[in-house]
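pipeline stage [seq->struct] | target=Transcription elongation factor GreA/GreB C-terminal domain-containing protein | organism=Leisingera daeponensis | residues=155
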Amino acid sequence: MTFAKSTQLPAGSDFRSLFERSAVETGFLLTVEDRFGIERLIHRRGTRNAPSPALLNGLLRHKLRISRGAPWPAPPELVVAGCYVTYMISGGGARSGVLSMSPAPAPGRILIASLLGATLVGMRKMQKVPLLRDDGQIETIVVLDVGPAPDRGPA
């Protein structure tokens, strides 16, 4: 599998065009719960602790606009809040975690209130899209696997 190298976002360019191409070519699907959760994060300022809250809010709003509704029940290959997702960024090693709608960081969690989590939500297994970084770099992310969150056992 070949991945694009990290590139710097050109001055004055609109990052939305990157995601619009991805949505047209491969599409993003949001469940009703994820759509509602994203709207709640924005409304309740759940992104205020992100490194670039304005950029993240713009990405989340754009994701809401370009995503289609997911069928019910959601397909097992769809990345949704609460799922365990394995992904790779620009040819690096595989990483994984549970996608979380919570704005509070926790070990093993990928926050939707982050550029990484906002990009992952609504993707499908083996889908590859641009990933915008806080520093303006653009990398490529691919979803390798999606599954249920691991059972934590007795509380």
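stage status: PASS
auto-comment: The longest strand covers residues 137-148. Residues 130 and 140 are 5 Å apart (CA to CA).
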